[in-house]
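Section 3.1: Structural characterization of target chains.
Under the original work plan, the team committed to producing a structural model for every single-chain target entering the pipeline before any wet-lab resources were allocated. The record below documents one such target. The sequence was received from the expression subgroup and is listed exactly as submitted; it comprises 135 residues.
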Amino acid sequence: MLRRLVSPSAAAATALLSFSAWAQSSALPTPKVEEVMVKVALLTLNDANLTGNYNVLYAKMARPFRERFSAATLKQAFATFAGHHSDAIAGMPIVTTEQPRIDDNGALLLRGHFDTTPSRLSYALDYACRKANGS
């Protein structure tokens, strides 16, 4: 199983996911919720990379991101990750490198990594806040 460092483009693309459980509150997620959010994002990306089908990843992205990019664009952006497995993280704890925070635009920022070898799998995820109109 190949474990790779998530490149900045990979982190940026998965970074714009919406997460309805968090979006219903402006409170920061608990450590357990943070872990679930990170794993859902990265395992969804893993599934897309393994199957070549980026429709589910695309559907989970925040509306502003979906309006700018297509599932085909995601497939092209992640071409270098195609066929690479990172599903081992499902059973591993996250290691946060920064405390979760909400930035000036209202996005929830999650930063950290998994202690994978031979390369560390790092993540930088930004979650767009879901507005009342469902965006």
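The helical segments are 8-14, 20-23, 31-51, 55-60, 63-68, 71-77.
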